[in-house]
Each structure stands twice: as C-alpha cells, then as structure tokens.
Amino acid sequence: MRRFASEKSRIILAHRRNLYSVVQNSTSPLYPQRFSQQPHLCSSFLLRFFNTAPSPSSSSSSSSSTDSMANDYSSTPVTVDSINPKVLECEYAVRGEVVTLAQRLQQELKDNPGSHPFDEKLIETILVVTRDEEILYCNIGNPHSLGQQPITFFREVLALCDHPSILDRSETQGLFSADSIERAFQILDQIPGRATGAYSHSQGIKGLRDTIAAGIEARDGFPADPNDIFLTDGASPAVHMMMQLLIRSKNDGIFCPIPQYPLYSASIALHGGTLVPYYLDEAKGWGMEISELKNQLESARSNGINVRALVVINPGNPTGQVLAEDNQRQIVDFCKKEGLVLLADEVYQENVYVPDKQFHSFKKVARSMGYGEKDISLVSFQSISKGYYGECGKRGGYMEITGFSPEVRQQIYKVASVNLCSNISGQILASLIMNPPKVGDESYESYTAEKDGILSSMARRAKKLEEAFNSLEGVTCNRAEGAMYLFPRILLPKKAIEAAKSVNKAPDTYYVSRLLEATGIVFVPGSGFGQVPGTWHVRSTILPQEDRIEAVISLFTKFHKEFMDEFRD
Amino acid sequence: MRRFASEKSRIILAHRRNLYSVVQNSTSPLYPQRFSQQPHLCSSFLLRFFNTAPSPSSSSSSSSSTDSMANDYSSTPVTVDSINPKVLECEYAVRGEVVTLAQRLQQELKDNPGSHPFDEKLIETILVVTRDEEILYCNIGNPHSLGQQPITFFREVLALCDHPSILDRSETQGLFSADSIERAFQILDQIPGRATGAYSHSQGIKGLRDTIAAGIEARDGFPADPNDIFLTDGASPAVHMMMQLLIRSKNDGIFCPIPQYPLYSASIALHGGTLVPYYLDEAKGWGMEISELKNQLESARSNGINVRALVVINPGNPTGQVLAEDNQRQIVDFCKKEGLVLLADEVYQENVYVPDKQFHSFKKVARSMGYGEKDISLVSFQSISKGYYGECGKRGGYMEITGFSPEVRQQIYKVASVNLCSNISGQILASLIMNPPKVGDESYESYTAEKDGILSSMARRAKKLEEAFNSLEGVTCNRAEGAMYLFPRILLPKKAIEAAKSVNKAPDTYYVSRLLEATGIVFVPGSGFGQVPGTWHVRSTILPQEDRIEAVISLFTKFHKEFMDEFRD
Q1: B407 alpha-carbon distance from chain centroid
Q2: Which residues form the Aminotransferase class I/classII large domain (chains A, B) (predicted)?
C-alpha cells in the first residue's frame, strides 16, 4: 500500500500528460467547449467542477527512488503510457490524498507512539485500523466498520442458508429463531436444487425477485414485475451496467448532480462519456431546480453533447437532502419531455430522519402521475449496504428497470449474463431487506428494536453534528434529512486559501489535512464530490457510534477555532 | 424470459445492421483485413472463428407481435440502434439458441405432458428446472446445480462467520466441527472490527490475502506476495479488469485460444478490442504449438494490430487438456520475447484426472526458469467456482498479478476501488480453498473423503463419456485430462450439413438441436467456442451425477446412431 501511495505524484503527472496528448490528438467535440482554450481539456473540465488544485503528493520526496523502481520494470510490456486512457482519466476521490495522509500518520504513530497530538485510538474511531495497518474508510458509508451491528434475523437466515444441513438438527432450535428457520426453508425452496452454491439465473433467483417485487409493490402501491429486477453485487455494478449500455463516446453525456457521489464520475470516465453537471442549490437545502437543469441541458446540447440520462440521488449523497414529491414530479416531467433515462439512486431510501419528509420512489411518483411502463425509461438502484442494515461487505443490491423495449432489455440481460450472476448471499439479503419480519413473527420485536435503535441513533448523531457545525464561525450546514452524510460549507479566510496555495493544495484539502494532523479526524474535502467554484465543503459521515460522537465534535470544534484564530482575515 | 427469447431474431438482425454501419463509418484498421471485402467485418471476423451460420431464431414466427410490442416503446429514449455498439457486438454463446430451444421444450412439456419423447425429468438432469421454469445452465460448469454437495467444512466456517454471535454458545459445539469454530475465530480476527458486513480493503481483507499467498507458496515453492492478490467476485470481474486496463481501441489485440471460453471474446468485445485467435491442435491433444502462435502474431501485426496479451486456459476449457510443463516453458519464453502479458486462466487447477499430467502454475514455471518479478508480466486467475468445491453461487476468486510497475498497479488498484470490494463470503471461501483442513484437524478426514469422492467421480464420469463418444461412428474425442468438459469432434455427413443449411442453422447447432428435441439432452455447439472452419464439435460437461450418466450415454448413443442412419452419405 505504501509503495502505491508513494507513486501518487508521478501518476498524477503522467495522467496529466496523458490527458493532454489525448486531447491534442482528439478531433471529437468535447464538452464543455468553453474550456477549450485550456491545454488539458478533460482534466480541466473535471477540475473545474471538482474544484481541485493540482495535487502533488505529500510523498513527492520519494520520487527519485520511485523513478529507479519504475525503471526496473523497463523490460515488462505495460506502462502507464500504454494502458487504456479511460482508466487513467477515472478518479475516485473518496479514497484520495487525505486518506493517504491518514495512512502515513497511522504508520508514524505505530513506529513512534506519541509523535502526534492524538492517539491511534481516535483514528480508529474514524478509520478502524487493524494490527496490520489495514484501513477501512469512513469516507465511504461503511457502518459495520464503525461498530454498527448487523440485524440478527438477517444473519440467522444467511447462516442457515449457507449451511442447510443443520436446519433439521435439534440444537438449531436453541440457537436460531423459529422464523429464521422457517424463512431459510422458504428461501431454499425457491432456489433450484436448494443449491446456494450454484450460479443462478443471470438476473438473480426468480423466487427472490418475486419477493423483492412484492416488497416494491407494498412500498409504492403500484405493481412491480420480477422480470424487471436485476440482482447485482451491490449497486455499483448496476450503475456500471447502465453506463456501459448508454455511453457510446465522449459525445454522450450523463447528467449528474454536483455535488455527486464519485461512483458516477468514475463510471462515466471508465466508459468514455461526458459528465454533464447540474448544481444543487445549497441555499435551498440542496434543492434541484428545473431552471438549472434546463440551462445546463441547453448548454450541453449547444456543445454537441447528446445527453442520455439524468442521475438523481435521493436521499442525497453527499448532501443529505430528501427531495419533495413536487420536485420529483418536475424531474419526471423534465426527463419525459427531454427524452432522458431517469437513473434514480435510491440506496438511502430507509435513511430519512425528519418527520416532515418521506421517501417516495421515482417509480411511484411517475406512476402516480399516470406515466406507465411505456412512457418513461426509469432505473431504480437499491443496495443492501445502506439503510439500517448496512451490509456493505455482502455486496448485494438490485436495479429495477422499467420503460425499456424488449430488444434493449435483451441487451442488458446479455451483459448481466457475461458475469453469470451476483453472489447468492447478497441476493438473499436483498430479498430480506424488502421482506423483513412481520407483526406476529417471533423475531418481529427484536428486529424492530434493532432497526429503530439504529435509525434513531443515526438521526440523533446527524442532528448533533449538524448543530455542532452550525455553531462554528464561518460554517453553515444544511439540515441532515437523510442518507449518512453532512456536507457543511466552510467559509475559509483568504489567508487560509493563500496558505493552501503556498503548499499547492486545494483549500478544502488543506483544511481537512490540517484537521487530520491536529486531531486524527478524517473528513473528505468537498472537491472529491464537486462544489460551486469558490465554495469549500467537507463531507462527514454520521457513522461514528454515539459514545464517540461527542469526542469528535469537541476535537473538531477546538481545531476549527484555532484554525480561524490562525487565519482570520 | 420468453418475451426476451422471442426477440432474438430481431436482435440479431439489428445487431448485423449496427455492425455494418459501425464498420462503414470506421476508418481504423480492423483485423483481419483479409476479410475486409465483406460487408459486416467485425461480425464476419467473429463468425469466421466461431464458425456460426446466421441464426434466425426458432421463434421467428412471433416476430410480428414483437414488432408491435417494440413500437409501443416508441416514446422511450433508448433503442437498440442508440445503445453502445460494443454491447451489441458482445456475444455470450453458451447461453444461446440451444438453451432457448430447451426452455421452449420445457414449457411445452409443462403445458402438454407427453408432447415430447422424453420426460421433464431428463431435462432436469442436464438443466435443473424449478417449478417456475427457471433454468440453470449445465452448459456452464455449475456443479452444485447438478447435485454436487458443498464441502462441509467450508460451509461450516462460512455460516459461523455470517453469524458470529453463536460462536460462544454451547449448542454450537454440537452442531459444528471444532476446527471450523477455530477457523471462524481466526478469520474473524483477521477482519477489522470482526465486521463481515463492512467493505474491506479494495484488494480484499489483508489477512485472507496472507493466507492465499501462503497457499500459493506452498503449491508452487516460490514466494507469493499478499499485495499481489486482488480478491474478486469470481474470476470474471478480474478478467474484465485486465481487459479494461489493456484495451485502448480496436487496434489492441488479445491472443486467445480457439476453442476458447466465451468470457474472453465477450469481454474483448465489450472493451472494444480485437480477439486474435490461435488454434489449439486437436490432433495433438489440443496442444499449443509455438509455430501457430508465431504465425498468428505475425499476421496480426502485419494487419496493424498491437497484440498486448496472451490468454492461456490451463486446464483447458472447453478442451479439457492439461499443458505439459515443457509446453508452458515455451509459452513463457514466447510472451517474454514478444512483450506480451501472460493471462493465465488457472481456475481448473484442482481438476486433473490423469496420472501422467500435473497442474503447474505459470508463475511457478516462469520462476523456475529464472524469470523474476521484473522480467515478465503475469496474471493468474483462480476461482472458488471450479475445482472440487464448485462454489459458483458464492462468487469468489482472485487474480495474482506480478511483473507490473507500481504505477500500473496503482491504476489496477484504482479500478478495483471504484467497486469498493468483492463480497466477504467469497473472500473467505477463497482463503479456505487455498488453506483447507490439514492432517490432525478434526475435519481433515471428512474433508479429504468429500474432496476425493468428488474428484474421483468426476474422473470416472469424464472417462465414461470419453469412451462413449469414441465408440460412435464419426466421433473422435481427445482424452479428458482436466477441467469439467469434453469437446468431441463430430464428422457430420454432407447430407446433414445440407439439412442444416436448409433450415438456416450452423451444422453443429442443427445436430445439437436435434439431439435436444429427441432426448432432452443439452450440449453446446462448438461454434460457441470457436473451431477450425469446416470442423464441428459439441461441448458436454462431465457434471451430471453418476446415477444419471449412463442414461445420458445410452440416449445420446441411440440418437447418434439414428442421426447417422438418417444422413449417412
């Protein structure tokens, strides 16, 4: 890992070089042309939106040893200059510079205890570190890594499906709840040959898709067809699949919110398309304004971009807003009118923390407006990694696709077939989250207690963090309505911005790095998600457990005050 | 599903149209140019190697209803003409026409019992059908779907890791072996926070990679580095990752054996590259001849193709040969000399059935020749889906990458990061197959009995099928040395070839369809894998359990005799 980290500056430079030559050699119209006087166009295009300064690695001092290391590979056939430039272009900012710095501090603390004004324990709060310096990133919503416990019923069913030969044993009655045993039998009956070790249908086991479709129907009050469900290893592969289907060239654009979850920018880059941004309105609680969508669409089209789809993340990541139903109706109408596929990232559908907002799926909204299967193309992404379950490591999820012709569906099916199927444990969990224990089931009470405990704790933590941010000088934070994040804006003093420039860092990266060095707390700079140029944000998860949240807040508050004292204009 | 199936002919036609226009609009040199006088170049390029006739679907009678159905989607934005042409171009033949026919027969038997000269039970032998007409494909090696049982120790550990809260309960001692409990504790200790529900490091949990690296060392007698291991959801995503890295355009070629496992052709098509074929020599037990490699490389290069990597499948799929060590050395030298990345598909490493052959990993061979980390770029793919374990549904596997510079590795790591991590159950199983119970462990005896039982039964079934094929008129079958398949050649009489032409089918597809209609047995035509033009093959798995194998053989024998009587020249 450290070997990789020490390569970062070279990579970035090579990346820039590569983009430069790509653009110089390219004759295709690249969006947005208003940046076309700049030499590295793609790079600058992303930079503008992501608001990042060129970022020499903190480990640039090792570049000479690096050079000699790289040269040793001179007799091997593959170099960064000869790999797919789309891979080079792809960025995945949530695992970027600040996390590399955190890893370095970690090692320094290990090699030299007391070398920093915080102990390893605190970084553990945020990062969770093993004896082997392996790091799990809290910059990605990863609840179990920060101490959240799995839902007992779900894990009981999973264990029984993995090892069905204990189902009939008497000891099993004492170890497992009666309804988990019954559910395991039901699920096994749905699996051909009861073989949880066999490849399934490429879309996932039909019986589990039936269960999921029934769950969607119960949620929305509109029919759902199991043949529309594609079970996937988490939501990410489903997003990639849609990007692979829709993107033919750099001229194909995908509308994405800014700020966005960087899976989208990464996937668009990997598939060679263009990210067309629309800005969420921070002043209106990160609202989606149709006028902004219209302006950006017009601008993209006038630049020769064929905008194919609109990504909406609801509840929002990293912004935490929950869309109002009215707003959703406008978005549906906009997509319908403009001929855009609506890609609805609904993985936080269970994570809503305020009484005046509710989650409504885009399919429910579209159907309630009278739009049927053949009126609008709509994909909903769901995941077992979020919600109150947070089963990130199990890699389960699905997409529900509606409004695609049989020919196009056949193509989606074919792409799914090439990877055979998603993992069966993830498939089982996806069916369980859409069909949890019901009133009267033995596990119902404990399940409800676990679920409510997790969600109400998340709501409390979100509120505490939101209040803490808003109490600080120059910090404003929208209400945490949903998802697992806060994205406060930090009004950085001019002196701080200059200090950042002098060390060649983006101002928000500089702020976050200073925070990390002073306290061991790891936030992600806003530039990883995109932000209005000239504004600076950080993303924090709400996931540290409650016994740690106060410590995080008090350390952060102390740091921020000292930072402002140092740099106040 | 049937809705999709009925679309096939339209899709194929649309596909052809689309390829045609792609090629007409293309100015890039496409390989092989000797086919450039043909209108649909890419298509014909693949067709030549895969030896398939244009294939109108058996369900073309439904195309008119299909047309009206498709038209209903006229107000939705995505059509087959506007999706990514690489998706259209991708073929995944093992789930093709014959399986569609099997599904139809299935339905007919259900609707009208006795409508075919075999009962549903037999198709179940081969396809495994549920009450819902869901079909699992034996055309893909999927042992558990055909009744193979999972290894008890592996499933015990998996269940305990899924539900660790029972580890300390007294009932657990009665239900699980002592060493499975101990192993579960060990594995949980290797997982940060013991959280099997958390995202892991993007390459997989470090402790599990340590175990796998130690397993590779024990197998090869040469060091393995856990940092070289990337755990993946089966081997397929690993193959895609390497194709994504290596392929920049149609001008980049990947050397593949013909016959090949169609994952490779599909992945190359999806990433927009060119498959450069080399033919295995059927007369020499499907041997790899260096002279063939040299000729094909020269030919590709003279056509402007930059050949970047060589795929070797050992033991072979669909061909079942195990490479001799001498031959492997020649291949390593060839890759070294020609600057090719060696992509070694070693997923059948445990499946060797003959005493005079042994599996040797390409890394072991390269290291034993004195080639070190910096001398040759080598990727080994391994999977939990094959071997004696056959855990296809768990989607686990890894690639071990050696001989890539730190900069290139950083890029591979980044692509892995975008999908966060592979599923933890699959990761755990990958560590278990590389570190099974040892002498002295409580489970050792039962584990060994299960493993040997499965492998010796596979060997017996392979031998029986091989002998049956070779006893038939006009059928020759190479020795089944390894993997899970036989790929016999069928010398089809001229009259049969003409009969196939008259119904617009490839001769091998015609033969296999007739077999299916007469007996309910599903083999895959050789055209799905590629074969020397003018030769015809079928692929059969060796996976039907022993109590069914005799029935398969006797039905097949009877069919073949009657077919030859009908068409003998």
Answers
A1: 30
A2: 193-545
Secondary-structure class of domain B203-433 per CATH = alpha beta
Cα pseudo-dihedral A551, A555, A560, A566, rounded to 10: 170
Q: Tens digit of pLDDT for each residue in B316-342?
A: 999 999 999 999 999 999 999 999 999
Any B CB within 8 A of A172 CB? yes
Does domain B459-567 correspond to CATH entry 3.10.310.10?
Answer: no
Nearest to B237 among A7, A245, A419 (CB): A419
User: Which DSSP state fits B61?
Assistant: G
Strand order across the B485-486 sheet: B485-486, B538-541, B524-525
Q: Does A78 touch chain B (CB under 8 A)?
A: yes
Arithmetic mean of pLDDT, B240-267: 94
Same fold, B203-433 and B459-567: no
In the predicted model, is pLDDT for residue B367 greater than 70? yes
Report the residue from A75, A377, A423 with minimal CB separation from B77: A377
The answer as to CATH 3.40.50.300 being correct for domain A456-567 is: no
Full DSSP string of B269-336: HHTT-EEEEEE-BGGGTSBPPHHHHHHHHHHHHHTT-EEEEEEEESS-TTT-----HHHHHHHHHHHH
Q: Which element (helix H / strand E) includes A239?
A: helix A235-246
pLDDT of B20 reads 27
What does the DSSP assignment read for A325-371? HHHHHHHHHHHHHHT-EEEEE-TTTT-B--TT-----HHHHHHHTT-
Strand A274-279, strand A252-258: pairing: parallel
Q: What's the sign of the alpha-carbon dihedral A54, A57, A62, A63?
A: negative
Q: Where are the domains of chain A?
A: 1-89, 235-383, 456-567
Count other C-beta atoms under 10 Å from residue A550's C-beta: 12
**Using DSSP, how many helices (H) and how many strands (E) does chain A show?**
22, 12
pLDDT score, position A95: 60
By the CB < 8 Å criterion, does A59 face chain B? no
- CA end-to-end span of chain A: 40
Residues B125, B548 contacting (CB under 8 angstroms):
yes
**Which residues of chain A make contact with B423, given a CB cutoff of 8 A?**
233, 393-395, 423, 425-426
A68 touches chain B (CB under 8 A): no
Q: Is A61 helix (H, G, I), strand (E, B) or coil?
A: helix
CB-CB contact of B172 with B181 (8 Å): yes
Q: Which residues, in sequence order, are CB contacts of B381 under 8 Å at separation 6+?
A: B235, B238, B239, B343, B344, B345, B346, B347, B397, B398, B399
Return the CATH architecture of domain A235-383: 3-Layer(aba) Sandwich (3.40)
pLDDT tens-digit series, residues B171-213: 999 999 999 999 999 999 998 888 899 988 889 999 999 999 9
- Containing A175, the helix (H) or strand (E) segment is helix A170-175
Q: Which of B283, B256, B287, B319 has the alpha carbon at shortest distance from B483?
A: B319
A83 touches chain B (CB under 8 A): yes
What is the token pair recorded at B491? 């010398």
Whole-angstrom Cα distance, residue B418 to residue B395? 18
Q: How far is CA A75 from CA A427, B227, B337, B340, B376, in A?
A: 45, 21, 10, 11, 8
Do B263 and A162 lie within an 8 Å CB cutoff? no
Q: Which strands, in side-by-side order, build the sheet including A229-232?
A: A229-232, A397-402, A378-383, A341-345, A306-313, A252-258, A274-279
| Degrees to nearest 5, angle at CA A162 with A160 and A165 | 65
Tell me the DSSP string of A135-147: B--TTS--GGGGT
- Mark yes or no for CB contact B421/A192 under 8 Å: no
ipTM of the prediction: 0.85
The tens digit of pLDDT for each residue in A431-457 reads 999 999 999 999 999 999 999 999 999
